[in-house]
Amino acid sequence: MAVATKWRIRGSYFESCNCDPICPCRRIDEVAGGRSTHGVCTGVLSWLIDEGHATGTDLAGLTVALAIRYDDDEPGSPWSWILYLDEGGSERQLTALEEIFTGRLGGDAQTHFPWAWKASELLAVRPVAIELDHTQRRQWLRIRDHVTVQIRDRYAGHETVTCVIPGHDRNGEELVADELLVNDGPLAFFYTGTCGYASDFDYSG
Questions:
Q1: CA angle 94, 95, 98 (to 5 degrees)
Q2: pLDDT at 60
Q3: What burial letters (b/e) apply to 123-158, b meaning 16+ CB within 10 Å?
Q4: Which of 33, 62, 125, 173 could make a disulfide contact with 25, Cβ separation 3.0–4.6 Å?
Q5: Residue whose C-alpha is closest to residue 21's, from 199, 157, 194
Q6: pLDDT tens-digit profile of 187-203?
Q7: What span, in angstroms and rounded, lies between the C-alpha atoms of 169 and 163?
Q8: What is the percent of the chain with per-residue pLDDT over 70, rounded to a whole number?
Q9: What is the 3-state secondary structure (H, E, C) of the chain?
């Protein structure tokens, strides 16, 4: 018997964190990743939804971002994270996005989102104005007073790279960031020249 899909979103994804490129957390030439470069990972993840719905609510055109931190040496390496939701969405749309990205709606979130399948601390959910451009190798993200990410270019190597968050079934492109800045309460950091990554995504549940 076919199982109805309660939600599905697809579009483009990019991230940056404080690891050196290529981020050792990724799968590189089909070899599984491991510890982060510095033992503590801080970064920003972003999604631009081209098509999507959840329980009858259209989600196309909306954006989502996370600021994150975890420590490889903390038991279970729980994530601390802030969820940013596109303030242009309606109340129903924002509720649906929050339920998807916290993992409450299940489905692919339970295999792609580490903060959903392990112990984690959600520090805040913020409806904000998210300025986001996913142009290949020139991606950028701005959330006023909180987040700035600017990609410099692709990483010069030719390795095949995948990431659990979009899924290892789809190849991505390793990038280098000009700027990675977060200033939001308990999450505050700044880096330049660190890693980035871009791919597409297609989640459902």
A1: 85
A2: 98
A3: beebbbebebebeeeebbbbbeebbbbbbeeebeee
A4: 33
A5: 194
A6: 999 999 999 999 999 99
A7: 9
A8: 98
A9: CCCCCCEEEEEEEEEEECCCCCCCCCEECCECCCCCCCCEEEEEEEEEEEEEEECCEECCCCEEEEEEEEECCCCCCCEEEEEEEECCCCHHHHHHHHHHHCCCCCCCHHHHCHHHHCCEEEEEEEEECEEEECCCCCCEEEECCCEEEEEEEECCCCCCEECCCCCCCCCEEEEEEEEEEEEECCEEEEECCCEEEEEEEEEEC
Q: Which residues, including other chains, have CB under 8 Å from residue 66's CB and lie 6 or more apart?
A: 44, 45, 46, 81, 82, 83, 84, 101, 115
Mean pLDDT estimate for the chain: 96
Q: What is the C-alpha separation between 173 and 151, in angstroms, rounded?
A: 12
Residue 6 one-letter amino acid:
K
* Residue whose pair of structure tokens reads 């998807």 in the numeric block: 100
Residue of 37, 32, 4 lying closest to 19 (CA atoms): 37
Amino acid at residue number 19: C
Annotated domain spans of the chain: 7-200
Q: Is the pLDDT of residue 1 over 60?
A: no
